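Obj: model holo form, ligand = adenosine monophosphate.
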Amino acid sequence: MPSEIDIWQKIEKTCREIFELFNYREIRPPIFESTDLFSRSIGKETDIVSKEMYTFHDRSNRSLTLRPEATAPVVRAIIEDNLLQQNQQLKLYYQGPMFRYERQQAGRYRQFHQIGVEIFGSNNPLVDAEIIYMASKIFNKLNLNDLVININSVGDKNCRPNYINELKRYFEKNQRQVCHDCTKRLETNPLRILDCKNPTCQNVVKLAPKLKDSLCNECKMHFNRVISSLSKLNVNYQINDQLVRGLDYYTRTTFEVVSNQLGAQNAVCGGGRYDDLVEELGGKSTPATGFAIGLERVVEVMQKMSLQRGEDQGVKEIDLFIAAMGEEAQMIGFELLTKIREKGLTADQDYLGKSLKAQMKAADHLAAKYVYIIGEEELVKKTAILRNMKTAEQKEVAFDKLSEELHGLAN
Ligand code: AMP
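Output (holo structure tokens):
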């Protein structure tokens, strides 16, 4: 809605500026893809694929899905266009709507927007540190300083299977104490039990074997490099050994940025490494890492913070409003507006033929800094009153001097 669009644009602009500084290029993947792409990448047993996809058949009876996230579409696109062969280290960003048939609640929508990045080609832990640092830079620039970065390692295909078996054995022993969903997860996706929000499950999880104790040496070294690099960059983080995230493709580093200003859905950004996905989707083996920021939630935090700071929301000042009485005056106003806008100033007039009183009200509503009032007399004199709406000061300014006068006042 127009009243909140300034915040959206500020976030989008900040992200773009920071992405450019870190040498990312934009990619715009399609809104829908073959359903198969998502079930193969995100995982058949995840909530997203098993119950949240907007899937439909097109006129040729192909199964298509509105993208629930953009990593898989980006990977598909770069494999198809052979981008990885031309450029071994590829840094991309995207922005746009995503679709998940979620149970709607504050912070969970069926169409929502993400801005995200992906880096392909390097398994260096410095890359993980760089993107986490970049996310923290974005939030700092938006003045959101009380966010917390949670970080974990979910291991890789060498060490995770052993851990999952160990976890299964543990939960099988404690099956009666976990919720119905987790009993199902035990068969389909036991790792997800770790981040079940149900308090009884949480109690069982507390004593469960820890992923960090099962990591292989390579994964341990990788994780230690990531967190020591973050410390070097003065990024505050918390190790959270229950953080597993809702998509199956992650390997090693996973992270989430959470806000204490939001309710249950408190993550504003999530991401991690996915070293096997490119190969699984038919490309040559290419390590990769990335994150996605959820725009609706960042907007919500920013609105709350600006309310707490007592700032006006959604009010956008304009430099000048021309209150013109009658057709001829409106035409003069029309010409003057062109000159004023050429000077880079924001200006508008009323085309509805309202009374002077109603036009002054409109100027107030638009938070105009100045109003220029042209009536019949003014048309003869070629000069009119310029009124400062804040101080109520007025002065006569000739038509042909108006744009210079305003330009001077604005600078
Ligand atoms: P994910 O793609 O699940 O890793 O989510 C990344 C970020 O997108 C989350 O941290 C949220 O900020 C946001 N997000 C995910 N799902 C939704 C949703 N249904 N509604 C609003 N934001 C969402």
